[in-house]
Design goal:
Order of helices and strands: EEEEHHHH
Bound molecules: zinc ion
Structural class: alpha+beta
Radius of gyration: 21 Å
Number of helices: 4
Helix content: 55-70%
Distance between the termini: 64 Å
Shape: rod-shaped
Strand order of the largest sheet: 1-2
Number of strands: 4
């Protein structure tokens, strides 16, 4: 099986599929003949990972809830941040998304701990 890179022509948007071996090389779009450069594998990897991965979105929400929990210390925000973060780690499709979830859980746990501490000392 040959690994391929899929990218889009910057001029006409034509979908171009080429072998990974061509990464970083210059070529011509087979539709509009515009000069194109095959992106590197790293750049393609970034593009392939969908921003709409539910795990990543949930991880972001979790981090937001945890962050808000840190500022205004309500148990509800921080604990739901932990919950959403755990769900995010469960449904995350790639390690990066799960990292978002992990970050959300971490921030939310800190927020929870802070709110416990504050309520214990006040
Ligand atoms: Zn083109």
């Amino acid at each position: 099986m040959t690994e391929t890179i899929t990218f889009h022509c910057i001029k006409c948007g034509n979908k171009i599929v080429t072998a990974v071996a061509n990464a970083g090389k210059r070529g011509k779009c087979n539709k509009c003949q515009a000069k194109t450069q095959v992106p590197s594998e790293a750049a393609v990897g970034m593009e392939i990972q969908p921003a709409t991965d539910p795990g990543r979105v949930l991880g972001g929400i979790s981090m937001m809830l945890g962050g808000l929990g840190l500022i205004i210390f309500p148990y509800a925000l921080a604990s739901s941040g932990v919950g959403v973060g755990l769900v995010s780690m469960a449904v995350g499709k790639n390690p990066q998304s799960r990292l978002y979830g992990l970050g959300g859980v971490g921030i939310s746990l800190i927020a929870l701990a802070a709110s416990f501490y504050l309520s214990a000392t006040s």
